Amino acid sequence: MASITLEKISKVFGDGTEAVSNLDLHVADGEFMILVGPSGSGKSTALRMVAGLEETTEGWILIGDRLVNDIEPKDRDLAMVFQSYALYPHMTVEANMGFALKMQGEPKDQIARRVREVAEMLGVSDLLHKRPRQLSGGQRQRVALGRAIVREPAAFLMDEPLSNLDAKLRVEMRAYIARLHQELGTTTVYVTHDQVEAMTMGDRVAVMRDGRIEQVAEPSVLYERPANMFVAGFIGSPAMNLVQARLDGHELAFGEQRITLPDSVFDARRSLLSYEGREVVVGMRPEVFHVSYNGGGAGRELTFDVLLTEVLGSDMLAHLSICGTDATARLPGDTIIRGGDHVRLLVDPTRLYFFDPQTELAIG
Q1: I want to staple 139 with a disulfide (CB 3.0 to 4.6 A). Which of 7, 97, 135, 353 is the partner?
Q2: Could you write out the three-class secondary structure of the chain?
Q3: Rounded to whole angstroms, how far apart are CA atoms 49 and 25?
Q4: Of the candidates 314, 304, 297, which has an alpha carbon nearest to the alpha carbon of residue 343?
Q5: How far, in Å, CA of 252 to CA of 257, rounded?
Q6: What is the pLDDT of residues 79-115, one digit of tens each?
Q7: Band of residue 295 on the pLDDT scale cut at 50, 70, 90
Q8: Does residue 224 come out as left (phi exceeding 0), alpha (psi in the -120 to 50 range) or beta?
């Protein structure tokens, strides 16, 4: 195993497109690091530079203490798992899994033993004599993982490996890969656009936008203490609601509606005091809302227009509007509201987030 370090990495393509810009990232030995972001954020390009499939325009890549910028991909001691599985269609599962060892000149008996061990670990022992076209998507992905594992590389690089699977199988494979990492302890860099994968699998998560890292932290820190509006709006499902309001003393004014902020909010965010009389962006997670049935929530109540509702069994997602801004509330599934209604919701002011509307940075 080995650490992976990116120092001031940039990638500019021939047409002038800057896919990655001045990126710094350290992945510790044995860590499961997630690169997450929307399409075009540069996450896959960064991974391909680590693998050696893309040359860096600037910066340095180290695997352990070895500078690998000028080292061929096959000599970097990395194993990559692709979205497309990339299995050889004419080979059996056994031949696919053992191919890299064969290319390294390993003895046949050692290759066979290692393939059998990994196949048993992955639950594909009964598939060794089949070809890829005879396998389901989940089975193909396990074989692709197995081909990477048999090599015992210094690190795994995974580029959206679950994107081609259906929703149920994605959940199963997500847990499976996380469990494999616990067993193997191999350094892993995993690229995804799915923030649910990021939050459930990674030791740490690097959130990317426009070729830059916005924040790197443990999943719980990203959720509870987002550094800026982009991270706040990207991490969480449904996303955090971001609504503009005016700070008027100890009150937040949403148009004609107001809620009162207790002293504890200002004690926790001393910088918020300097926004007196100014606009701020207020972040509200969907789960901070509660229906107000008896009107007993003075200073904590806002009225929303209901656009539509989605009942998801025990939960309901209510799509709302306030001051011309769309918002989402997660409510109990038996809540009786429907599109076209007006609903009064209680808001816990101690669970709000605040951002500067110009810089988009969190107000601390």
Answers
A1: 135
A2: CCCEEEEEEEEECCCCCEEEEEEEEEECCCCEEEEECCCCCCHHHHHHHHHCCCCCCEEEEEECCEECCCCCHHHCCEEEECCCCCCCCCCCHHHHHHHHHHHCCCCHHHHHHHHHHHHHHHCCHHHCCCCHHHCCHHHHHHHHHHHHHCCCCCEEEEECCCCCCCHHHHHHHHHHHHHHHHHHCCEEEEEECCHHHHHHHCCEEEEEECCEEEEEECHHHHHHCCCEHHHHHHCCCCCCEEEEEEEECCEEEECCEEEECCHHHHHHCHHHHHHCCCEEEEEECHHHEEECCCCCCCCCEEEEEEEEEEEECCEEEEEEEECCEEEEEEEECCCCCCCCCEEEEEECHHHCEEECCCCCEECC
A3: 13
A4: 304
A5: 8
A6: 998 877 788 999 999 999 999 888 888 899 999 999 9
A7: low
A8: alpha
Judge contact between 262 and 335, C-beta under 8 A: no
Q: Is the pTM of this model over 0.85?
A: yes
Strand partners, 309: 318
The model's confidence at residue 179, banded by pLDDT at 50, 70 and 90, is: confident
Q: Which residues of 40-50 are buried (b: 16+ CB within 10 A; e: fewer)?
A: ebbbbbbbbbb
Tell me whether residue 100 is exposed, middle or buried, using C-beta atoms within 10 angstroms of its C-beta: 0 to 12, 13 to 18, 19 or more. middle
Nearest to 149, CA basis, from 126, 120, 175, 174 = 120
Specify whether the CB–CB gap between 96 and 59 falls below 8 A.
no
Q: Environment class of residue 95 by beta-carbon count within 10 Å: exposed (0-12), middle (13-18) or buried (19+)?
A: middle
pLDDT band at 364 (very low <50, low <70, confident <90, very high): confident
